[in-house]
Amino acid sequence: MPLADNLVSLGDYWLKDAIAQNLIxxxxxxxxxxxxxxxxxxxFVSRDDKGLVATSESTELKLWAAxxxxxxxxIVYRQSQFPQSAxxxxxxxxxxxxxxxxxxxxxxxxxxxLGIGLLQxxxxxxxxxxxxxxxxxxxxxxxxxxxxxxxxSVPFAQLNRQVKTYDAGNGLKSLINxxxxxxxxxxxxxxxxxxxxxxxxxxxxxxxxxxxxxxWVQPKGATLSQAAKAWIAFCWTAGAAxxxxxSGRGISPTFLGNESDLxxxxxxxxxxxxxxxxxxxxxxxxxxxxxxxxxxxRQLRTSA
Length: 304
What we know:
By secondary structure, this protein is an alpha/beta fold. The chain has eleven helices and eleven strands. 35% of the residues lie in helices and 17% in strands.
């Protein structure tokens, strides 16, 4: 395994800030190593010096990280509360969360990017929206908040009626304690709970989910040794990727977009079939839009 000063692990949510604050170096790997990673994931870690994806063809991009494990946002529920759906999940779509009988029965993460991302999924079919590209880049944060509010206040009201609690990290505990019947949570936490509590079920709708990815990055000033390069390449081999997926309670990005290569050991993964093909990482937002997300989420939650 590589020395600690060669590589460190980082969640993709922090990649933009790590680049912008000059905390990490671009990853220089052989082309044959990068070729093991699906093109869409190469594009996801290709950023400019502010940590953003390209806004024009002239923007110079570099490869900054090596994704090695993806986690999925999943719907978890207590089967005993849905006995009529024993043979099939009651949640075939994210919009099933809006069913009238689910009012005040759901726990959602209290996070602006996840909350607004889910609203966008309900409205447009994607956790990522083209909204930011339709807003003047010089718009102020208050203008962005107002534009977002105009577009998302109605879907928020629809979803908010269903929510009993917004929680930063204890949604599963609320489910286990029977305070709620449904929770939206990350697969890594969910898989552990499923093994302990027989009444719990989890599903990723076929229309796909949101992915959070763990990355290898090179700290600023570190020298990427041959051992570190070999380690990244090893993580993207079929055997290692399978083990990382199983032990890490997620799935290697090398299998995303390459479902035909999915090993038998992962055939029972939450991310299989259309759910695998249609899932997506949350794209990085420009600073003004991120500030607008935070302000809007606070505004929506306060007025609810």
